[in-house]
Amino acid sequence: MPSKNSQKPNVSEWIKRETPYIREALETASRHFDRNDTLDVHTLEALYGAESSFGQNRRKRNIQGAAGDFQMDRATARSMGLEISDKNDERFDLGASSDAAAKYLKTLDDQFKKQTILQGTTKTIPVKDDEERKNFDVAAYNGGASRIAKAQKLAVESGDDPTKWNEVQNYLEQAGATEDKADEIRQYVDRVSFYEPQFQKNSEANVDAKYKKSKPIKHYPVGSHWITIDDRHILIKG
Prior knowledge:
Elements: H1 4-17, H2 20-29, H3 41-52, H4 74-79, H5 94-113, E1 117-119, E2 122-123, H6 130-143, H7 145-157, H8 165-168, H9 179-202, E3 224-229, E4 232-237
Antiparallel strand pairs: 1-2, 3-4
Helix pairs in contact: 1-9, 2-5, 3-9, 5-6, 6-7, 6-9
């Protein structure tokens, strides 16, 4: 993992690249976050930097695996309402992809806020502290919610605290991650955790943007629909 000193220039460069269009896209997407949680536009800026260096490393269209501004795989992107086809891949549209990334991050936050059955017998253990839960959200964005939930369970079985990321991260390999993937998840959380306060300090993005009325959602997954409660979009399955 690069040292924190080597990361600082990246944040400065990204802020210089943040045009009014980029800023507006991220601010608009941040409206999917709750008024009372700690997720906001600066979280999205940090995620955008960690995922594609503010759009500089988006990979190619039609490539296998994660791609686009927020490096979403096809299944996740489609579940968040994005269109992906040979003619149109909305993962490469900043407005659409940032919107989907915010919805996905908020979905993960909701899953770790309360006990949630993810698949089979795999379920999350609630993390009540907002700042601590953000680490779990970011880890799940990179490594999948089920893997992080399994690591939580292993932490409990070993007598560790399943609501503390510093303890849960030690069980990623046992939860099914390869050594390289486990290291990637840990480093990813560390990077986003470092980037976010840099954006808080230096970015012109409006942190209060999430308090504004949410924009309409154009797409939704087949068999599901979105409803709006308190200016926040919630996915209703089925």
